[in-house]
C-alpha cells in the first residue's frame, strides 16, 4: 500500500461507525447515540447506579473480576463467533505481556446496546477500563472528561494511513487509538453479469450504468443494490458518492478557525441526484428500493437477485461462512471510478479508548490501560486474530500490512477479495472528519440524528421530497447543532444548491454529453 501524507491536520463513525452496521453490525447504529443524552446523565456520576447489564460476557473464568489486578474491556466483536473467540484469547495474552499482575475480562456488547450500556456504566461508576468505540464517540467522551487522551502513545508511530492519522484529533489531543478500518466493497455476481453479455466488473460509473441496464433488460435480476432506506448503510453509500463527486459534508475554515457545512453544496446535490437516478432515471435497482436497508440489500445479493452491490465486508465473510454458491461467482473490486477520477469508498472502523479511573469498575494504573491498547494493536499481537477477522479488519498503519492474511492467507476467503479490500483501503473517506481533517464532539450527535446522513436521500427516493430544499434544510439543521456546541454562530443559508455551480467534471452527467448518461433532474 502506498504511504500517503500522514501529517496530522490541525488540532478528526457509528458507525464502527463503523462502524456502521451496514450489514451484520460492524459499526454502531447512530440512532442510539446522543451526546446530549449522555451529557444529561453524565452529570450524575456520583450517584449510585446499577452496573451495566451486558449482552454477553466471555472471559477466562466467565467472571466480571477475580480480585487484585482486575481489568475489563468491552468490544462489539460478537457477530462472528470465530472472530470473537480469537480476540478474547488474544486479550487474555495481555496477562503475560503486562509488566504487572492483571486479570483480563472481555465483555461483548452489541452496537445497538452499547450507548445505553456506556451511560449506565458511567452513572454507576462501573465503566470498563478500555472500550472499543468509534473516534466520534471517543472525542465526545473526551470533551466530557470521561475518557483519557492517548496522544503520547499515538505519536510513537509515524506510519498512519491518512484518515486514521486525524480521525481522533480534537483540541490538540488524540482521543481514540485507531484499531482497524473497514471499507465498503463493490460486489459483482459474475454469473449474472456474463448472462447480460459482460465479462468483467465495471471500472467507471459510466460502465456501471451501462452494465446495470443490460442486466435489467437481459436477466431476471436487478442491476444494482445497496441500502436505499433511511439507514446507516444508505448514508455511507451516499457519502462515498459525494466524495467521488469532489464534495464533502463538512469543511474547516483555517483562517476563521471555524467549521463549515457543505451538505448543501452543488457537489452534494449532484451526488444525491446521481444516486436517485439509479431508480428515477436508469431503473437498475430493485422495486421498493426506497424501503430497502443494507441488510435487505445484502440478502438480495446473496440470493442471486442483483448483479452489483455496495456493502460492508461482513457480507463477504458471511457468504464464505455459510458456504453459499454466490461465493464462487462473486468478485470484489474497487468502487467504480467517479467523475473526479477517484475510487473513494466510505471508511468504517473502530478505535480503542481508556476511561478515566474515576468512572471505571476496577481502579487500575492508567498506564495499564495504555499498555493494553498498545498490546492489542501491535502487529505481532494482531496476527493472533486478524485472520479470523478477514476480510472485515484492515490495517490503520503500514506496519500492520506485514501480517497474515495480507502476507499469507490461511483463510477460506479468496486471495483476490483480501487484495481488493487492502487496495480499496488506500482511497477512503469518513463523513465528518475527511473534509475538516479533524473531529469534534458534535459529529456523533448529528450522525445519530440523521441516520448517518441518510435522511435526505431516503426522503428524495421514498417521499418525493425536493432535493434542493431537502439538502438546504438538512444543512441548516447541521449548522444549528454545531452553533449550539461551539462559541461561534454558523449562519443559516437561504440559497438552495444549484447544479449550474457544480464543477466541470460533473457537467457531462448533468447535460448527458457523449457516452455519459444524464442524471435525473426533477
TrEMBL record:
InterPro entries: Bact_solute-bd_prot1, SBP
Signal peptide: none
Annotated SUPFAM superfamilies: Periplasmic binding protein-like II
Positions of the UniProt region annotated as Disordered: 1-37, 490-522
Pfam families associated with the record: SBP_bac_1
Biased composition (Acidic residues): 490-504
PANTHER family: ABC TRANSPORTER SUBSTRATE-BINDING PROTEIN, ARABINOSE-BINDING PROTEIN-RELATED
Entry protein name: Extracellular solute-binding protein
Organism of origin: Halalkalicoccus tibetensis
Species classification: Archaea, Methanobacteriati, Methanobacteriota, Stenosarchaea group, Halobacteria
Amino acid at each position: 500500500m502506498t504511504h500517503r501524507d500522514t501529517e496530522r491536520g490541525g488540532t478528526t463513525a457509528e458507525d464502527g461507525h463503523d462502524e456502521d452496521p451496514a450489514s451484520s453490525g460492524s459499526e454502531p447504529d447512530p440512532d442510539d447515540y446522543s451526546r446530549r443524552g449522555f451529557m444529561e446523565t453524565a452529570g450524575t456520576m456520583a450517584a449510585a447506579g446499577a452496573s451495566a447489564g451486558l449482552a454477553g460476557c466471555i472471559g477466562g473464568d466467565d467472571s466480571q473480576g477475580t480480585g487484585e489486578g482486575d481489568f475489563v474491556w468491552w468490544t462489539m466483536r460478537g457477530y462472528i463467533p470465530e472472530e470473537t473467540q480469537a480476540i478474547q484469547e488474544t486479550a487474555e495474552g495481555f496477562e503475560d505481556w503486562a509488566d504487572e499482575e492483571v486479570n483480563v475480562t472481555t465483555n461483548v456488547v452489541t452496537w445497538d446496546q452499547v450507548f445505553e450500556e456506556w451511560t449506565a456504566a458511567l452513572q454507576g461508576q462501573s465503566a470498563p477500563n478500555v472500550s472499543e468505540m468509534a473516534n466520534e464517540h471517543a472525542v465526545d467522551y473526551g470533551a466530557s472528561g470521561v475518557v483519557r487522551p492517548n496522544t503520547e502513545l499515538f505519536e510513537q508511530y509515524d506510519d498512519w494511513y491518512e484518515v486514521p492519522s486525524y480521525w481522533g484529533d480534537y483540541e490538540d489531543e488524540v482521543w481514540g487509538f485507531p484499531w482497524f478500518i473497514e471499507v465498503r466493497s463493490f460486489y459483482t455476481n459474475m454469473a449474472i453479469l456474463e448472462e447480460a453479455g459482460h465479462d468483467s466488473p465495471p471500472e467507471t460509473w459510466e460502465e456501471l450504468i451501462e452494465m446495470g441496464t443490460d442486466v435489467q433488460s437481459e436477466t431476471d435480476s436487478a442491476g444494482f443494490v445497496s441500502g436505499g432506506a433511511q439507514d446507516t448503510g444508505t448514508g455511507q453509500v451516499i457519502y462515498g458518492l459525494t466524495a467521488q463527486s469532489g464534495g464533502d459534508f463538512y469543511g474547516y475554515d483555517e483562517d476563521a478557525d471555524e467549521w463549515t457545512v457543505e451538505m448543501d453544496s452543488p457537489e452534494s446535490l449532484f451526488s444525491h441526484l446521481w444516486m436517485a437516478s439509479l431508480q428515477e432515471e436508469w431503473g437498475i435497482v430493485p422495486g421498493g428500493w426506497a424501503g430497502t436497508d443494507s441488510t435487505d440489500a445484502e440478502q438480495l445479493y446473496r440470493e442471486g437477485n442483483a448483479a452489483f452491490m455496495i456493502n460492508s465486508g461482513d457480507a463477504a465473510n458471511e457468504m464464505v461462512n455459510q458456504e453459499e454458491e454466490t461465493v464462487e461467482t462473486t468478485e470484489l473490486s474497487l468502487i467504480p471510478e467517479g467523475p473526479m477520477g477517484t475510487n473513494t469508498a466510505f471508511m468504517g472502523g473502530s478505535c480503542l479508548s481508556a476511561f478515566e479511573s474515576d468512572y471505571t469498575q476496577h481502579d487500575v494504573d492508567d498506564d495499564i490501560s495504555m499498555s493494553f491498547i498498545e498490546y492489542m494493536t501491535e502487529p505481532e499481537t494482531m496476527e493472533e486474530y486478524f485472520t479470523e477477522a478477514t476480510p472485515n479488519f484492515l490495517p490503520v498503519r503500514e506496519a500492520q500490512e506485514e501480517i497474515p492474511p495480507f502476507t499469507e492467507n490461511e483463510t477460506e476467503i479468496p486471495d483476490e477479495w483480501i487484495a481488493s479490500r487492502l487496495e480499496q483501503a488506500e482511497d477512503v473517506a469518513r463523513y465528518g472528519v475527511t473534509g475538516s481533517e479533524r473531529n469534534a464532539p458534535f459529529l456523533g450527535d448529528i450522525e445519530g440524528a440523521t441516520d448517518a446522513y441518510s435522511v435526505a436521500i431516503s426522503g428524495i427516493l421514498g417521499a418525493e421530497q425536493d432535493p434542493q430544499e431537502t439538502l438546504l434544510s438538512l444543512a441548516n439543521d447541521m449548522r444549528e447543532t454545531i452553533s449550539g456546541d461551539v462559541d461561534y454562530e454558523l449562519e443559516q443559508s437561504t440559497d438552495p444548491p444549484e447544479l449550474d455551480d457544480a464543477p466541470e467534471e460533473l457537467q457531462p452527467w448533468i447535460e448527458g454529453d457523449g457516452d455519459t448518461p444524464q442524471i435525473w433532474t426533477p
